[in-house]
């Protein structure tokens, strides 16, 4: 059977970071197969083993917390839908060059995971997100609390774009030009707000 070609380049941020940012997910990610193929027999074996672990949970076979944790990791590793998806591809294309497993970015991440360079390359805010932020904030500057004329609305990243802040409704707020021009790329404001909430 002809395998699908993964249409995105699986970004491996470990090359940039020098470690796998997906941490424990590495252990839940299958090793790549030497020939890149997952056979129907292997898929059936995975499903059978998955059911055995599920049955052990139902029958309460585990005697300690560590046994339960091992079983949970097994369920995550053996999840049949994950293996079915992998079987559509040549797993060698998805292999981590350092650890030999299927890169967790393929299984858990976005279609293309950001690297530092990619993240800094674009600050475009889609119109739909702009409208949602303006509606939520009521066209009021979130610092000085003054109404902002439509032509003077500016959008501010709570977590600065330069520090990896996403372009999302949750990370944006309306500011007036004056307040936005006085702001720096610092996390102090958000950290102080969180301390106030917890204190």
Please characterize this protein's 3D structure.
42% of the residues lie in helices and 4% in strands. The protein is mostly helical and 199 residues long. It has 2 domains: 14-117, no CATH class; 122-198, His-Me finger endonuclease fold. A two-stranded antiparallel ribbon has the order 1-2. The longest helix is centred in the N-terminal third of the chain and has 19 residues, at 40-58. The termini are far apart.
Using brief descriptors, characterize the structure shown.
4% strand; single chain; 9 helices; two-stranded antiparallel ribbon; mainly alpha; His-Me finger endonuclease fold; 199 residues
Number of domains: 2
For the report, how would you describe the main beta sheet? 2 strands, antiparallel
Question: Could you give the distance between the termini?
Answer: 60 Å
Order of helices and strands: HHHHHHHEEHH
Which stretches are low in confidence, meaning pLDDT under 50 for 5 or more residues running?
110-121, 190-195
Shape: elongated
Rg for CA atoms: 23 Å
Classification by helices and strands: mainly alpha
Strand content: under 5%
Number of strands: 2
Oligomer: single chain
Please estimate the helix content.
Answer: 40-55%
**Overall pLDDT score:** 77
Question: Which strand order spans the largest sheet, edge to edge or round the barrel?
Answer: 1-2
Count of alpha/pi helices: 9
């Amino acid at each position: 059977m002809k395998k699908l070609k993964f249409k995105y380049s699986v970004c491996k941020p470990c090359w940039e970071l020098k470690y796998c940012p997906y941490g424990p997910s590495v252990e839940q990610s299958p090793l790549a197969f030497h020939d890149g193929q997952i056979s129907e027999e292997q898929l059936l074996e995975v499903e059978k083993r998955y059911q055995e672990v599920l049955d052990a949970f139902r029958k309460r076979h585990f005697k300690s917390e560590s046994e339960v944790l091992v079983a949970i990791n097994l369920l995550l590793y053996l999840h049949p839908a994950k293996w079915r998806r992998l079987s559509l591809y040549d797993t060698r294309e998805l292999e981590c060059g350092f650890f030999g497993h299927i890169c967790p970015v393929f299984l858990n991440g976005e279609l293309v995971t950001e690297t530092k360079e990619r993240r800094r390359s674009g600050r475009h805010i889609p119109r739909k997100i702009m409208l949602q932020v303006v509606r939520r904030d009521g066209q009021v500057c979130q610092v000085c609390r003054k109404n902002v004329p439509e032509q003077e609305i500016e959008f501010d990243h709570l977590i600065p774009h330069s520090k990896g802040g996403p372009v999302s409704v949750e990370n944006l707020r309306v500011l007036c030009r004056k307040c936005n021009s006085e702001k720096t790329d610092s996390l102090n404001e958000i950290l102080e707000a969180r301390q106030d909430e917890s204190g």
